């Protein structure tokens, strides 16, 4: 797989596809977007190296540098089926963790789970039952910097590519958000931009909405403001009390988060300033 982003200009698609064809590759998937507002160009290509190709993946990767520099590309080339290494952060709610573990076990998510990290012990049995390392990092205002440093040490030691906040209920510091820029996904239990912060289902009940939802987004220092990846909604009516909205919300949350993780793991998402470009 090859992902590319750059200032838009003629000849990028032709240059890239010609290079791959000349090196004995067959393109099986190609998506592109030319953002006329930002002047940015995005492309994702899936290709296979034909049996009679004279170049190996490593040689194709190395040979691409000259073309990429000439076209001013920001690019990455991957072994398409290499799983993305993820670390899952949880607090006390288990529904998003259980759904991710189930989809992973069923082979629906091309991920490798390096650890489950929590500020509570409630969900340790779930992780241990799956044979996944569980790391307990309780958070207080006093120990937050030290605990976040422990988290980053774990992220680096395990070569984690994506941190998933699966209803993790502590606010990450600005420094940690900067360190995890573009590689931390949170599930917010409302249809953003509505009902930010804590207790969105009670806010929804008080407002009398007819739809509730959940939003998976990249984590930024601005709470619930990160670039949106996936949203899911469900119809409700006057008969849904807050506890019923919470119960229904478990469906929208798991659906939005799992889809977002799948899109990230398949390298289908590009960050474009404070928004996303996604090739589904
Ligand atoms: N820097 C960020 N950190 C986190 C974000 C984010 O968008 N940016 N999202 C949250 C998840 N979340 C909403 O989706 C959320 C979680 C917790 C709170 C909150 O007020 N927490 C209290 C403590 C609550 C507790 O201990 O149970 C607090 O931290 O003071 C608001 C929103 C995850 N982190």
UniProtKB/TrEMBL annotation:
Keyword S-adenosyl-L-methionine part of the UniProt annotation: no
Reaction catalyzed: (6R)-10-formyltetrahydrofolate + H2O = (6S)-5,6,7,8-tetrahydrofolate + formate + H(+)
SUPFAM superfamilies reported in the protein's UniProt record: ACT-like (SSF55021), Formyltransferase (SSF53328)
Pfam families cross-referenced by the UniProt entry: ACT, Formyl_trans_N
Domain of life: Bacteria
ACT domain ranges (all copies): 1-76
Family annotation (InterPro entries): ACT-like_dom_sf (IPR045865), ACT_dom (IPR002912), Formyl-FH4-Hydrolase_C (IPR041729), Formyl_transf_N (IPR002376), Formyl_transf_N_sf (IPR036477), PurU (IPR004810), PurU_ACT (IPR044074)
Active site: 224
UniProt KW Hydrolase keyword: yes
NCBIfam families, A to Z: PRK06027.1, PurU
Family: Belongs to the PurU family.
UniProt-recorded name of the protein: Formyltetrahydrofolate deformylase
